[in-house]
Amino acid sequence: MSRNFLQKILFFALLWLIPAIVVATETQSRNSLIAFGGRVASDDARGRLVIEFDRKPEFTLHYTSNPNRIVIDLAETHFAFSETELEPIGLFADIRYGTMGENASRIVLTMHRPAKAVLAEVQPNESSQGFRLVIDCEVIPQKDYTTLVETQAWTGRESSVEGKGDRVGDAAPAPEGGDYLVAVDAGHGGIDAGAQGAVTKVDEKDVTLAFAKDLADRLNAIKGVRAFLTREDDTFISLSERVVIARQRGAKLFISLHADTLRQKDIRGATVYTISDKASDLLAAGLAERENLSDGIAGIQVNDEPEEVTDILIDLTRRETQAFSIRMAESVVKSFEGQITLINNPLRHAGFRVLQAPDVPSILLELGFLSNPEDEKLLTDPEWQAKVATLLSDAVGRYLKESGVAVAN
Q1: CATH superfamily, with its number, for domain 176-402
Q2: 61-115 pLDDT, tens per residue?
Q3: Residue 129 confidence (pLDDT)
Q4: Burial of 34 (C-beta count, 10 Å sphere; 0-12/13-18/19+)
Q5: Quick one: DSSP state of residue 274?
């Protein structure tokens, strides 16, 4: 058999095989999921990853340590979006994705701090065809993360956490014993001293912590109510982590306490704030801007995200939650009126990061201004603190009654 004859046989065999190879390749491509978009939003304590698919994906999720990672396994997926769409920021140190052998792909989230997926589900796209995979993460203590890794029930490469549209974990576990939980947040702390008294040079962080402890004691005296502090000593806690602590411990109400300073030293009195994407006035806007710089003081990078990214991260406060926040703020003002000095127009709103819990009614209370000598004197007076703490606890009780909230007997 001549060499030319063999070459002809091989040539015609290839002509016969090429269409089969093309068909097989096209079939494999059609069977692969297509991830056509991705986005990520994160700060130091929370993060959200969103990946859009042409079809509904099945996935599994598990954790690894050293380094701390959340691993999402998928069927074979073609990632058809730019790498720049999933640039790691905030909580995420690295985000990688790709194929893992035949018929399998994987997304790996490497985290700066131990974190848990509090939401992992597939949702239908609202404005287009297809589905999106949404992973929400929150920091947790290292010991809890170690337990999470050690108690995973493995079946092959799958974990006991099945990602088929089910919620993974609980962002806000049910309160123990049915108590109504209130998070009392003492503003500032640690390296972030906050404002300073005009006369005594007292630090805002010390004023707020002393008042927070007093308020928590008085709230705990209300039947069916249990209060806890987001910080119990002179420790720095980021604004985002304060929100996470409140939600993870099941808070139903969040009260953040502050005592700022102003250039206009004649302005004095208490003010109650709720969150809004637009400030009610220049004073509110300025205060929110200064309070939001708290993380920057401690060296935490704060990104000014575009509006759509901010919405992805926090789903900004739901209307129902915001309505309850306003109701609580109104109850505080009603309790304070005629009892302590209030600023003009004491109900205000602005974009305070510490009020960003989407499912916990939240207020920020400026007790007064350390830049005003009269306010400073009161803010450092234990008797005045006790009076205001009593009035504020009364306001919480009124809020619960007017909102129809049932507490444990």
Answers
A1: Zn-dependent exopeptidases (3.40.630.40)
A2: 999 998 999 999 999 999 999 989 999 999 999 999 998 877 899 999 999 999 9
A3: 86
A4: middle
A5: E
Write the CATH number of the domain with boundaries 31-163. 2.60.40.3500
Q: Which residues pair with 108 in a beta bridge?
A: 71, 96
Which residue, 119, 108, 77, 111, is CA-closest to 92? 111
* CA trace torsion 124, 129, 130, 133 (10° rounding): -50
Per-residue pLDDT, 308: 46
What is the side-by-side order of every strand in the sheet holding 46-53? 77-79, 33-42, 46-53, 131-139, 115-124
Q: How far is CA 148 from CA 64, 141, 178, 222, 246, in A?
A: 9, 11, 26, 35, 21
Domain ranges of the chain: 31-163, 176-402
227: tokens are 């209060």
Closest CA to 60 of 100, 89, 2: 100
d(CA 335, CA 402): 13
Low-confidence ranges of the chain (pLDDT < 70): 1-30, 153-177, 296-318, 406-409
- The pLDDT of residue 31 is 77
Tell me 126's DSSP state: S
